[in-house]
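Section 5.1 Outputs to date
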Amino acid sequence: MEIILIRHTAPKIAKGICYGQADIDVTDTFLEEIKPILKKVSTYDAETVYYSSPLKRCKKLAEKLSNKVLFDDRLKELNFGDWELQNWNDINKTELDIWMNDFVKVAVTKGESYLDLHARTTNFLLEISQQKHKKVVIITHAGVMRSLHSFINKIPLEKSFDLKLQYAQVLEINY
């Protein structure tokens, strides 16, 4: 199965704010940012299946790419719990250090760990792989893209952030 992972465009939020599952809109540059994606997707055949995170910053892009999008909560970004919409500099330093030292296993209060995100995203991938699609497009977030990339390429989660991702980036993987 050919998988095309697409990260959402730039979110409309100040730099330095933690925003995992907060439902943030996109910036005014949205239509400009999606032009290369639209060009690429226009070459895909009618059998291509589109999945997306239901969060606004993904949903807007997904709806520009296809009128037959399947939205799935498992494609949401990491849930940062109590840290959502806080400035990273204002987060309790002790809590932040504990999380930074083991971000794979440590969950933020009222949130989830990267391992939790990985479990839900790999569950999603295993489920859709049974449907025998030739090509799927997944509009999602950097954390989900890194998780799926790591799973498919057998990369330890601790090393998944070696994959640098920009807004509106397209990553093609065979699975």
